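--- STAGE predict ---
source: upstream dedup step, 1 unique chain passed
mode: sequence only
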Amino acid sequence: MNMGVASERFAFDMENHLQDIAGGSVILWELDDGDRFIFFDHDGAWPLPEGSDATLSGWTAGIHPDDAAQVAQLRRQARQANRRFQLDYRVAGSDGQYRHIRETAAPRCRPGRPAGYAGAFTDISEQVRSRARLAWGEAEHRLLTQNVRDLIAYSDADNIYQYVSPSHQEILGYRPEEMVGTNVVDYLHPADLAAMHAARGSDGADDRSAMYNMRVRHREGHWVWLGINSRTLRDADSGRRTGFVAVGRDITAQLEAQRELARREQQFRSLTSLSSDWYWETDANGLFRFLSDGIQSRLGVEPRQLLGTKMESCALDTSEPGFLACQSSVAARRPFRDAVYSVGLEGYPGVVRYIRISGEPIFEEGVFRGYRGATRDVTREVRNAKTLEHMATHDSLTGLCNRTLLETRLRQRAQDRRANGMHAVLFIDLDRFKQVNDTLGHKAGDLLLAEIARRLKQCVRPDDTVARLGGDEFVILADCGQDIAAASAIAGKLLAALNAPFVLGGHSIRPSASIGISICPQDGTHPERLLQDADCALYRAKQDGRECFRFYHPDMRNPAQPGTHAVH
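--- STAGE serialize ---
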């Protein structure tokens, strides 16, 4: 197609008119009064609608249906008024993709009447996308700043607020428009100004973000603690400071929680220092990872000495019931209370202490993390209990078992006879003991009884029981195995030991004794019956001349001989 000088001039004018459009592909065109293109300059940068370079109707056919009606109306109105117009709409190319087009047109005039239009189709798709991204970014920014609870503010180099997020009203009570144009410093606690200036630094300081905590005055007058992250803004060319961007968060509740935690920790330390207990915690492997200082004041052990060790490292006897109960609970991940066992301390060899320990498992989200608990030194309590128990079960003069403990052990032996073995009950009574008391006095008699107790214990095994029933009556419970002859051997040994002379107050005394023997289970299993039977046998030994022993036989019980003796 050819065009005249006028067309060249118009094309030149359109290029000047469109030279400020960046990144767009431009099609210059002219229409005659029949809407046929007499000039159509397309560089091929994007595919055109089919037949669009011949007639305007061909171009219009590619317009998006949503835009077509409005484009037709505006174009018609402009032509009726014979004036310039500009339209933005979408056109589909031969590839089926829609592009945003800006149509700019002006009437071509012949002398006395219109002669069509000249104009340009400019691809502004990238501009539209850029504007959409910008609009979305602005909307996103507004959404964040208007709905986030953090305080976002921008101030100039003189600390004058230029922007304040809406969240300031919720946190501090001020509307954003109230704060814009005011000075940042006017809202800050005087004691915190130095920290702010130090964080922001001088004009030539590093512009990395600075973190600091400050009190900011609420509209109602009280102070609100904010954690602030501030950054200095600078001019890209000169490096001059132009302002500050700050993001703050209300940390009042956080600081109060920290103070409360510190107060409770101090309270815990005070209570643990005043308490008779010490507190501990282990990891999942049972290793101590914390012990309170109370253990040092109670046991003389520094907490650090036990860190990384286990409970059993201090236990003296891991077979003690209290320790076994504690370990059984730990193995089953159960709480345990008031388990008592003995412990030994490094640096104090031979010293036995007793502790009472309670603990409970620690679970975090269902995962076992260890144990925590409390422990108390109960050495005095245990020793007092043992003393009371000993007093209740032992003879105060000789230290031997008393009747109560003897009957308990008789009952235990009867119920738990090893390999169906036999046990001998040897009832011992001193001969003519009353004469010692009457001649030398009761003190001498007590010394004699103590010596008799010592000799009796030397004649039996450690597992056998030696008891004093009162006065000059003693009982020995001895294991005989399967042979009743063992009881005879024990009795003979006892008589020999008791007949040895004993010097008392300058007088040589030769004690002697009579012994009656009953056998469990041959003669019975009930403690009282066994003692009665042995007593019967003792009576027979005295009748037979004293200084001998006799075994019980049922014939010893008859109306004339009730099985008890009045005088020994």
